[in-house]
Amino acid sequence: RNRFCGASKPVWRVLGMEKKGRRRRCSAVGKDVAADLNGRIPLYKSDWLTTDGRHCRRSGVFKIASASLFSYISSILPAIVIGNILDDQTDGQLGLPEVLISTGGMGVVWALVGGQPLCIIGVTMPVAIFTSVCYKLAEALDAPFLPWLGWVCIFSGARRTPRTRYSADLTPAPSFPAHAGLMHIALAIFGAVHFVNKTTAFSCEIFGFFISVTYIWDALVALLDPIITGKDLDFDGTYPPGTNDTVAYDELYKTQQRGSAFTNLALAGGTYVLCMAFHRAQRWRLFTPGVRVLLADYAAALSLGFLTALSYIPVVDDAIGDKRLDVPDDNGLNPSFDRSWPVDLSAGAEDPAAELIVESASNATAAALEEPLVLEAWQIAASILPALMLTALFFFDHNVSSKLAQDPKFHLQKPSAYHWDFSVLGLEVLLVGLFGVPPGNGLIPQAPLHTRALATVELQERASGSGHKETFHSVVETRWSNLIQSTAVLCSVFALPAIAVIPQGCLDGVFLFLGMAGFDGNELWERMWLMITQPSLRARELRFMGADTRYSRVQLYTAIQLAFVVLVFVLAKLPYIAVAFPLLIAVLIPCRIYWLPRLFTPAELDALDPPEPPPDSAREPEPMSPRAEPARPSPWPDGAAEGGGLHLGGSSTLSEAHQAL
Predict the structure, then answer these.
(1) Is the previous residue joined to 147 through a cis bond, with omega within 30 degrees of 0?
(2) DSSP bridge partners of 463
(3) How many CB atoms within 10 Å of residue 370?
(4) From CA 661, how far away is CA 649, in angstroms rounded?
(5) pTM confidence score
(6) What are the φ and ψ backbone dihedral angles of 2, each rounded to 5 degrees?
(7) Which of 27, 139, 199, 648 could potentially form a cystine with 23 if both were Cys, beta carbons 3.0 to 4.6 Å apart?
């Protein structure tokens, strides 16, 4: 019996996996996927029709609207940057249209059939790195890139060798693996996703820290590179008619470009400061509580809109020049170059980008490229290795992002569905490979920030009196926000000129905001700052430090995590070798299980990396009254009165404000 929708027939019985009161021996295969379906199918109706599991309330609808807009902004802007990166790294074979269609299309499918709709799906920066490395590998193998990438995605889903057919010249050519087992689905069916339960805070903190550092690094490089190194400041175009002094023209051009770089730096700083200020508006004393909640919910949208409007002041607009978002001129569902969306993956298929390669090649190499590249059987077999790397990346990246979106601090009421979700992801990866677009998976930090946007956030003063902490309750567990933002991303291919009005600096400022917001709640970030905190103040902040945990052990644990962050970051930036960086991420789990217990005592590990509560699917939540709020821990020490000092958490002011809103 489920508290949301009443009794429902178990999926075990629907799938014929139960007989005479006990499961058959074969039910071990697929039982986890069936258990996920048994937990989520009865809730599917409530995912669409309710905001609190029972009723559809107006406050929940407002939360869905604000979360949809926030998630759209946090998805579309990184997608634009990733599209431009792929366009540059793949010589125009992949670009913004493919990234938008992959992010939006996979998100729509996920919102409709995914088990946990709170997880945001899209093309991530690690996937962009992986795809760029695949392009270089395809060049080294003389393989056509798009068909080869398609086989990487298919082999990332395929386990059995596909049946072969023969072409006219009796050359064996692998056909489409319609009957091949799916690697992602196989991992889910055979219960391998249970391995995600061994992913403790040690691994999640490192990976979340790595993603945040990547966002911040890319933003700072884009902002400071032209200023410090003079990159892209040299004039490489055609001089205007009547230009006599080319040297003076070059100097004038450099001055204008450097001024544009400084202007974008100022816009990025303004966007970041406004985003962070509005993001933390509930800590203000200005305005009413309802207004502060609205400012926090629409922080990114308000900041981006204000700074974009400011950039059109004539003086600022002249200083920016052409440094606005670079998007294709064509609107609509058109690929980056002239080709059909479905990609021919059969052996002997010619490169669909052959004409594009010849056009972009120099005259010296154009003659050598008259014969288009042809996909050969051995090249298809060679795609298995990067496919394994992609599977390892998605196994860790997606499940960690899904786990962060369902963090116990959010107090979600509906169960998780890790096995079913990974099966759906495998099917989506297979489909995007057929259409020649980059694959996507769960986004960090967008996924946990999406859950945060759907939650009611309150502030509680720390017991030590040194600041406040956020508490979350009443998360609107719905499919609407993910569906709305994914549909908006997909429809953005028809509104590229509207996106082009945003200055590049505002985009970098949002990147800085996403990176810094991803540090919220990451104890690695807090412990890193504690290493340079005044010693007399450390004891007040060390919530994770037990009676048997010395501060030197905390420093060693933090140093190990930071070392892993540096290793993963450096490996992800190295050419060719970057394809293996998912393996280093996957190594984090066995390191935590087998290596750390040799360096730390069980008591120290329990304090630094505490065990998590049982998975959501294993617990039965108690029914809640429609207007009741879950019990929240008191911010005051035992025996202390809730008296003097600033006390925001648990106060009636915010509760009344939420009800009024």
Answers:
(1) no
(2) none
(3) 8
(4) 18
(5) 0.74
(6) -110, 140
(7) 27
CA angle centred on 506, ends 503 and 510, rounded to 5°: 145
246 — pLDDT class (breaks 50, 70, 90):
low
Helix H, strand E, coil C: the string for 450-485 is HHHHCCEEEEEECCCCCCEEEEEECCCCCCHHHHHH
Placement of tokens 């690690």 in the chain: 126
Q: What is the DSSP letter of 595?
A: I
Q: Which of 211, 296, 217 is nearest to 524 (CA)?
A: 211
Number of C-alpha atoms within 13 angstroms, CB side, residue 288?
8
3-class secondary-structure state, position 253: helix
How is 489-500 classified by DSSP, letter by letter?
HHHGGG-HHHHT
Which one, of 441, 438, 362, 442, lies nearest residue 135 by Cα?
A: 438
Which 8-state DSSP code applies to residue 592? I
Query: Coil, strand, or helix at residue 261?
Result: helix
Under 8 Å between Cβ of 510 and 304: yes
The distance of Cα 394 from the centroid of its chain, to the nearest Å, equals 11
Distance in angstroms (rounded) separating the CA atoms of residues 199 and 585: 11
Neighbours of 34 (CB within 10 A): 22
pLDDT for 344 equals 85
Tell me the DSSP string of 177-188: -TTSPBHHHHHH
CA distance 161 to 376: 16
Tens digits of per-residue pLDDT, 111-169? 999 998 999 999 988 888 888 888 988 888 888 888 888 888 886 654 433 333 333 34
